[in-house]
Design goal:
Helix content: 10-25%
Number of domains: 1
Shape: globular
CATH class: Mainly Beta
Distance between the termini: 80 Å
CATH superfamily: Immunoglobulins
Largest sheet: 6 strands, mixed
CATH architecture: Sandwich
CATH topology: Immunoglobulin-like
């Protein structure tokens, strides 16, 4: 009987561990922001945006992408404020190219999530 119980436990343990791993499958999603978008100027001041959504506690880092590649002249810092609320601080270096085609990507240990709702713009400092 003991062997039978041990066998059952050995068979069930992987299922329990797999089920616990399901937390990562919670989708990270940005539903709203204040203000509605990011606007920075090359070499200018940072812009701080309050994000509202879900799954932010899973986010380990955030990056700004352009043309499907990380764009190093525009940097961001992601800070969890509370469940469903985070602050995003975005800065554009002096060599950042003006444009509206930037995208915020949030990274968890297992996946990445583009914040499609949020617009990111680097505006020409002469405008």
């Amino acid at each position: 009987m003991k062997r039978f119980l041990c066998l059952i436990l050995l068979l069930l343990c992987p299922m329990v561990l797999f089920a616990q791993d399901g937390l990562e499958y919670v989708e990270v999603e940005v539903n709203d922001s204040q203000p509605k978008g990011v606007l920075v100027r090359p070499g200018g001041k940072k812009d701080v945006i309050r994000l509202y959504g879900r799954g932010f506690e899973l986010v380990k880092r955030a990056e700004i992408y352009r043309d499907s590649q990380p764009y190093k002249p525009v940097t961001c810092k992601f800070k969890l404020v509370a469940r469903g609320m985070a602050d995003l601080e975005v800065t554009a270096a002096a060599d950042a190219q003006p444009g509206e085609d930037y995208q915020l990507i949030l990274f968890t240990p297992k996946s990445s999530y583009p914040a499609e709702y949020l617009s990111v713009e680097v505006r020409d400092p002469n405008e």
